[in-house]
Amino acid sequence: ISNRSPDLVDQPDTIVAEAEYLTFILVAADPDGDSISYSSPDLPAGAILESLTGVFEWTPTYQQGGLHTITFVATDYGTPALADTEHTDITVTNVNQAPDLFDQADTTVAEEEYLTFTLVADDPDGDSVAYSSPDLPTGATLGEATGVFEWTPTGLQSGQYTVTFIASDFGVPALADTEQTDITVTDAVGVNDGDEELRIPRSRYLAQNRPNPFNSSTTIQYGLVAPTCVKLAIYDIRGALVRRLARGELPAGHHRATWDGCDNRGRRVGSGIYFCRLEAGDFTETRRMVILR
């Protein structure tokens, strides 16, 4: 008797969501009672098909949305070996992923000093992102579409503020990511120096540069409570000195330095993360800076 081919039962088309586990069992019958092995020439990446049992398993990733037409083959062990083939459509539906709101470094600012920074979020699905906060300090603003935070604390707003920032996408369902940032507002007091009144912070500080991230130049503010020998410098991510901004004794008060994005030789540095470090006596503080060319 000549060998007869097996009969592979049609596997119904299937719908599964991204990141959802899918499994089913292929079934074939051989009229000669031969054993059967299962295979597929076009399994999606990450899918498994057991050759002896016909068990199919797959958890599609977030990058595998769409239609996948899979060919299944049932082959017997007769002589000659014969096979039957079926095609199954598996549709992977999109699942919304939450945006990733980058951490905003804690910041120190003096009373009546302008503070601004820009929130940055990445959405893996490419959705637009809206920024919000349920607990903005009085007088502060946050751009819903831009993520730009702006605030000039008044003379009555010294203290620490823990601000919650939220990045929400426009997917279905809408998802969000949340980060918290501490903003310390230092209390400035008046000190008479001849005919000029200087505003002296009550504590030493190094404020976050603004703008940050920046392209061409950025301003760095820091404060001293007494005349102090200071070192203010920029370092790269490896800890190598990039630019020295201030060195020597400075009077008490608020001071500002501008970095033009160049090294000590006047060469423009590339995009990336840099660190501004202030050494003032026994006080040391470092802020992270980002250049986007």
Automatic annotation (TrEMBL):
Matches recorded under Pfam families: FlgD_ig, He_PIG
CC per GO annotation: membrane
All residue ranges annotated as the FlgD/Vpr Ig-like domain in the record: 230-280
Molecular function per GO: calcium ion binding
Protein name: FlgD/Vpr Ig-like domain-containing protein
